[in-house]
Amino acid sequence: MNLDVLRLRKELLKYCGKYNVQVRDSHAVSSEISVEECSMIIDEIVTDLVEPIESNMRREISQLFKACENPEIPYFEVVMDIMQFMNEFVGDSHIVELIFVRVNNSVARKKLEIEDKVYYSDAEWTPEVSEIALQKLRDSGTERDYNFMIDQIVEILSYSTSEEKLKTVRMRLNNIIKKHSHRELKGLNI
Question: What is the rounded CA–CA span in Å between residue 48 and residue 50?
Fold first, then answer.
């Protein structure tokens, strides 16, 4: 079989350039080549093209898994740190306790509704159901739950605090959550 080697090199360079991969040894292709040799060269070129794409895909997909990790966080440790910060920020422990009762109930309700896939009307949200939800939050609260808690706290504080201070509050509360999050997929390197 006879090949136009110059045209082949040009086309291979153009094709491989689309994927930012260098063509390896296109000069080694002779103008007279067998079908078996063509097949081997095609397999080598495909391997050269697929390897970087495959590693990029693995890295991107592992990032997706890492981004979606929702680790459990020990309730009492994180809540004590949040309450301590809130006491320092608000200055009145009674107000902080009132805020926390409301926020805790709201977070526990949302957690129960999401996990059980059941919406509770206000009439159905009894003290017994509330206590079950709070216990579930204490036993298996996750980063998502505490991020919702931060959103609730910031929303409540927004009525009496400037935007600048709210940003600081959100940042400090996020740091508390990060401090207590133990991500297992952090070491996942593919």
Answer: 6
% of the chain residues with pLDDT over 90 = 36
With the CA atoms of 24, 27, 30 and 36 taken in that order, what torsion angle do they form, in degrees rounded to the nearest 10?
0
DSSP string, 76-101: HHHHHHHHHHHHHHH--HHHHHHHHH
8 A C-beta contact, residue 156 and residue 148: no
What does each C-alpha distance from 54 to 18, 22, 48, 58, 63 come to in angstroms?
Answer: 16, 16, 10, 6, 14
CB 130 within 8 A of CB 101: no
Rounded Cα distance, 161 and 168, in Å:
11
The CA-based dihedral angle spanning residues 107, 112, 118, 121, taken in that order and rounded to the nearest 10 degrees: -50
Both tokens assigned to 188? 């996942």
Q: How far is CA 7 from CA 119, 131, 188, in A?
A: 66, 75, 44
* pLDDT of 72 higher than 90: no
Question: What global pTM score does this model have?
Answer: 0.70
Residue 170: closest CA among 182, 158, 179, 160? 158
SS3 for 60? helix
Cβ-in-10-Å burial (0-12, 13-18, 19+) of 120 comes to middle
